[in-house]
Amino acid sequence: MKVDMHTHTLYSDGLLSPKELIDLAIEKNLSGIAITDHDTIEALEEANQYVKTKDNFILVTGIEFGCEYKGKEVHLLGYFIDYDHSDLIEITEKLKESRVARGEKIVDKLIKLEVDINIDDVKKFARDNYIGRPHIARALVEKNYVKDINEAFDKYLKKGAPAYVERFQLSIKESIELIKKTKGLSVLAHPGLIKDKEVIDYVISLGIDGIECYHSKHKDNEINDFIELAKTNNLIITGGSDFHGEENILGNHYIDFNHSPILNRRVFHV
Ligand code: AMP
Ligand code: ZN
Ligand code: FE
Ligand code: FE
């Protein structure tokens, strides 16, 4: 029962619609996926309705919150969240609004840097109510200011680069608490991408439920280390591809729910 527990749709910065994503997952013989869009739950109702038309396909309702620890990016995943929860709806709406305003500020900075770009160039790659830096990066690639998305981040968009703008975000503690409120499981996302490993002890002290051991950007030795860490601290082991649509990576990392009683129970309530 293979479930890829980390995927994005075009409701955040992925390229596929929830339906296209689910169809692709079925084509790849996955038994299920978690949709974990950045800061938004917008894909979940549509995805939920669509899986009802499929036999036995598991949809884990998820989210990925972008937070910071001592000034560095840390991502937290929420799984099996009740996406009707009013606090979750209110906060994700606020997060989205602030992303649009921040997108406009980034474009203003780019214009001051003599980049010929406007907000409509970015909105071509984004939805009206959600702008992420990857959308701006795609516009910069299209306009030949950079050769790829990585260069766009390095040259303009990453923290410390000339067009970087902060955005409103939840703290790690607030994210974990909100996920708990919605009856979800909180999981530290891709710890291999976090340089300051102190954050792991910090999230454990806040009562995190799990750790994302398998991830496209984790090296084999990191995967093993995180599994050991999860076992030592009684944390749920999760994993997924972090699929955004560009590459052929959907399902390259997954959790077999047959081998995870806790996750299995959340799906089948047994
Ligand atoms: P935002 O949520 O708008 O702040 O953008 C953050 C997202 O951009 C991350 O979740 C990644 O998907 C992507 N990202 C961050 N840094 C890079 C990078 N150096 N190259 C490519 N994508 C990146
Ligand atoms: Zn993303
Ligand atoms: Fe992430
Ligand atoms: Fe992600």
Write the layout of secondary structure elements.
Blueprint: E1 2-7, H1 18-27, E2 32-35, H2 42-51, E3 58-69, E4 72-79, H3 86-112, H4 119-123, H5 133-142, H6 149-157, H7 172-181, E5 185-188, H8 198-205, E6 210-215, H9 220-232, E7 236-240, E8 255-256, H10 261-268
Parallel strand pairs: 1-2, 2-3, 5-6, 6-7
Antiparallel strand pairs: 1-8, 3-4, 4-5
Helix pairs in contact: 5-6
The protein binds adenosine monophosphate, zinc ion (ZN) and fe (iii) ion (2 copies).
One fe (iii) ion binds at residues 6, 8, 64, 242.
Q: Gist?
A:
This protein is α/β, with parallel strands linked by helices and 270 residues long. It is built from 10 helices and 8 strands. Strands 7-6-5-4-3-2-1-8 form an 8-stranded mixed beta sheet, with helices on both faces.
Word description of this protein:
The radius of gyration is 18 Å and the shape is globular. The two termini are 16 Å apart. Helix content is 41%, strand content 17%. The chain is α/β, with parallel strands linked by helices. It has an eight-stranded mixed beta sheet with strand order 7-6-5-4-3-2-1-8, with helices on both faces. The protein is built from ten helices and eight strands.
User: Approximately how much helix is present in the residues?
Assistant: 40-55%
Number of strands: 8
Count of alpha and pi helical runs? 10
How far the N terminus sits from the C terminus, by CA atoms, comes to 16 Å
Shape: globular
| Major β-sheet strand ordering | 7-6-5-4-3-2-1-8
Which regions are unreliable across 5 or more consecutive residues at pLDDT < 50?
none
Series of secondary-structure elements, N-terminal to C-terminal: EHEHEEHHHHHEHEHEEH
Proportion of residues in extended strands? 15-25%
The averaged pLDDT comes out at 96
Alpha-beta classification: alpha/beta
Bound compounds, each kind once, are: adenosine monophosphate, zinc ion, fe (iii) ion
- Radius of gyration in whole Å, from Cα? 18 Å
Sheet with the most strands, sense and barrel status? 8 strands, mixed
